[in-house]
Amino acid sequence: MALQRRDWLAVGAAAAVGLALAARLARGKSLALPVTAMPGRHFEVEHTEAEWRKLLSPEQFSVLRQEGTERAFTSPLNHEKRKGIFACAGCQLALFASATKFDSGTGWPSFWQPLDHAVETTVDRSFGWTRTAVECRRCGGHLGHVFDDGPQPTGLRYCMNGVALVFKPEGEKS
């Protein structure tokens, strides 16, 4: 059966959409609805968009408030080996202990468990499949995603954007 002209147009249009989405992802842009745009969600720490833009770097704002993704292997936190706490760059809430950090080889800081009551998860269908997004429970900042291919004892891999985190070494005063 030969393809008709309209079939070729449909294939071309689908390819163009796919390329546009791939280009957006390559630039570190997410396809998900930003946390700041989700109606009815309220957090302990809230700011207007203008206030968040003043508080955060452009990269932090893109990730934390617009659910962007930093490029893999660009975060200095990938190499952080000291004892301490990884906290939210938006509100400073302690999220992960350094004892739970591991090298996943993915290019993003990875942890097998968050601190108690530090993060919340939401459903993310931004790429045409379902993933579990991780956000700071205090400010709603997008941190990354959690997957079930991590090490024991949890079997989970919290794959976090380094730009969404700050590291606080053990014994250092805040």
Which second-level CATH architecture of the largest domain applies? Answer: Beta Complex
Backbone structural class: alpha+beta
Domain count: 2
Radius of gyration (CA) equals 18 Å
Poorly predicted ranges = 7-21, 27-37
DSSP strand tally: 9
Strand order of the largest sheet: 3-4-8-7-6-5
Q: Helix tally?
A: 3
Biggest sheet record: 6 strands, antiparallel
In short:
With 174 residues, this protein is α+β, with helices and mostly antiparallel strands.
Which descriptors would you attach to this protein?
Metal Binding Protein, Guanine Nucleotide Exchange Factor, Chain A, 6-stranded antiparallel beta sheet, 174 residues, alpha+beta, single chain
Report on this structure.
- This protein is α+β, with helices and mostly antiparallel strands and about 170 residues long.
- It folds into two domains: about 1-30; about 30-170, Metal Binding Protein, Guanine Nucleotide Exchange Factor, Chain A, CATH 2.170.150.
- The protein has helices spanning about 5-25, 50-55, 60-65, and strands spanning about 85-90, 95, 100, 110, 120-125, 130-135, 140-145, 155-160, 165-170.
- Strands 3-4-8-7-6-5 form a six-stranded antiparallel beta sheet. Strands 2-1-9 form a three-stranded antiparallel beta sheet, with no helix packed on it.
- The longest helix is centred in the N-terminal third of the chain and has 22 residues, at about 5-25.
